[in-house]
Each structure stands twice: as structure tokens, then as C-alpha cells.
User: Fold this.
Amino acid sequence: MDSTGSSLERTRAPAHGLEIEHEVSLRELNSFGLPAMAHSLVRVKSEGDVRRLLADPAYGTAPKLVLGGGSNLVFSRDPQAVVLRVEVAGRRLVAERPDAWIVEAGAGETWHEFVAWTLAQGWPGLENLALIPGTVGAAPVQNIGAYGLELADRFESLDAVDLVTGRTVTLDARACAFGYRDSVFKRDAIDGGLSGKSLITRVRLRLPRPWTPVLGYLDLERRMNETGNRAPDARTLFDWVCAIRRAKLPDPAQIGNAGSFFKNPIVSAEQCRDIIGRDPEIVHYPLPDGRVKLAAGWLIDACGWKGKSVGRAGVYERQALVLVNRGGATGAEVVALARAIQESVYGRFGIRLEPEPVIV
Ligand code: EPU
Assistant:
């Protein structure tokens, strides 16, 4: 069987009433559009589905790969694990408190549709995170963030199923150990993490009342100056964020990509001074702890990568931090391009760029 999905043979074997699909193409299930094949795939619509799988003698103890919208991973080969495609649906208002609306969504809901729905219901607070690709369940995994707001800033709690015991647990923000594009779900067990050990089923967010806008990000400042609107409401901010993203970032429905491919590196003040001495133009943001975050897009751009390609994998013309599939790229080509970029940034600036998506 090749891994292009062209000669799909789908056999289905019932296991405790649960449907397990075999030899499923993952090309349509990852936003990069990379070819890969799941030898076994289960669509998880409820906690019960996970428990049924765990009770199955053939699959219960097998390694597992949790797949949400596939917008933050790179298939460099066929996954050797049972793929659990999360399709838990539903969204609701859990509580209306004087200080906040608490809203909940199933992990399989599309993040952007959920943001738009909360706004339409009159519960603002997520507008800066509009148009981020992927599912609700994937949002806490990498602590999505954009335009001055991170998921962690709006997080209440989540439910997850333990992939060994089948028990459902509720985790608060502390237990999720959120960091910059990081959480306990991204870290391996050896580092105290839950990667591959747990499947998020539902996420609850806290939208503070009264609503106050999160402004201050350069691109939003620019919009305020252009429009003369110094006090945008939530709907206006949502529209601005959508317009800014559409202008800068490729739509995965048209050009395969996984958003930012690298994290913005954080360096010591001393290291930053050293780099500024050589490259005064470098885009950098001082952090409260004295360290400095550098714009990885700027570093990659400065090394001349914008618009370049390795095979059919390329660097997006309008934002050097985003790698794209120019049509028919393999995961190996994306990884080769990423390595070449890392080497050249390290060679010029002495900085190691860390990939943001999970490489399978
Ligand atoms: N820049 C360049 N050349 C480039 C790209 C960027 O010089 O090719 C410069 C820009 O001019 C700007 C600075 O780098 O001064 C930062 O660029 P931008 O505002 O586009 O943001 P970013 O740091 O590249 C981060 C997030 C994005 C998020 C935006 C907006 C990370 C890894 N990425 O990008 O998140 O949308 O800020 O808040 O933190 C994602 O995670 O997938 C993602 C798209």
C-alpha cells in the first residue's frame, strides 16, 4: 500500500461495537496536506469510545496518537500508533456569573467557529484568537496565542480521558502547565508530561465581564490609526484580526501549512545586546523577566529564506515563519527545509530555532 491514499482499502473490524478503520489516508486530516497512512484509526465521539478501545485486547495497550484538526503536526512518516481522531461535538454556556461567562465546547469543534459562535451569542473575549486553524481540543495543547492573547488567559478547565485507565479527569490551568506554545500535553512522560497519555474531550473557557479589549499589538495599533477608531468593540476586533491574518498567513484550505513553524526564541538580555550590536534592525520584545523574545520570522527572513523552497516545501512569501506545501510535498521535504533554515539561522545568529508543530 502506498501512502498517497490513492489505493485505499478500508477494512472495518468491530471491537466492542467500536468501528476501527484500517489503512486510512491522513492527507485530508492534516492542514499541511502531507501524505501519510493510519494503519488503524478510530473516530472518538465520546469518552465511551475511548473506554471501548482500551477494553479491546488488540488495541487497548497499543501506542496512540491523538489527532485533532491536524493543524499543528507534520507527518514525516506513517504514524506507528493507533490514530485517535477526536470528534467530540457540542457547545454550551455553562454558567453566567457576575464576573464571567463560562463556555464549553467539545474537543472536536472547529476553534474559529466556536469563537464566532461565542461572539454571536453576546459573550465576547476570544476575538483576538479568531481564525486560528484547528480544533477546540488542540487549542490547550499548544496554548494557542495571537495578537496579545493566549488561550491560558481565558482558560477555566478541561476534561480529558486517561489513555491507560480510561478515567476522565478535570484539569485546571495549573495542571495544564501552560507555557509559550506549550503545555503538559506536549511534553513526554519522561519530562512529567501527558503526550500520548491523555485525550482532551471538552474545554471550558472563562470570558471576563465586563469585557475589555486586548489592544497594544502593533498590527492592531496600526488598524486603530488607519480607521481612527480608538475604541473598537469585540466584533470590530474580530474583523480586524481576521483581515490581518488573511493578509499575512496562508489559508490551509488553499495552501497546506501548519501556521508558525518555529517558536519565537527567547534569549538573555546579554545575548540580545550582542545580536543588536551586529544587527540593529532585529525585531525583539523585552519580557517581564528581563529576557528578550526575538521574532523568528525576522531571523529567517534576514537569512534570505522568504519565498525559497526545498523540493515542494517552501517558505511563505508574506511571512517567513510559515512553511508551506507548494503542492505534493512530503513530510521529509518539510523536515529537510526546516533543518536547512535552522542551520542557517544558527550559523548567522547562534540561535537554535525550535519547531512549533509536533513532528510525527
Ligand atoms: N517579520 C519579518 N519577516 C517575516 C516575518 C515577520 O521581518 O517574514 C517581522 C515582522 O515585521 C514583525 C515581527 O517579525 O515585526 C513579528 O511578526 P508577526 O507580527 O507576524 O508575528 P510572529 O511573531 O511572526 C506570532 C505568532 C503567530 C501569531 C502572531 C500574531 C508565534 C510562533 N507565532 O507570529 O501565531 O498569529 O504572532 O500574534 O508565536 C501560530 O502560532 O501558528 C501563529 C500564526
Notes: The helical segments are 47-54, 111-120, 173-176, 218-227, 234-248, 269-278, 296-302, 331-349.
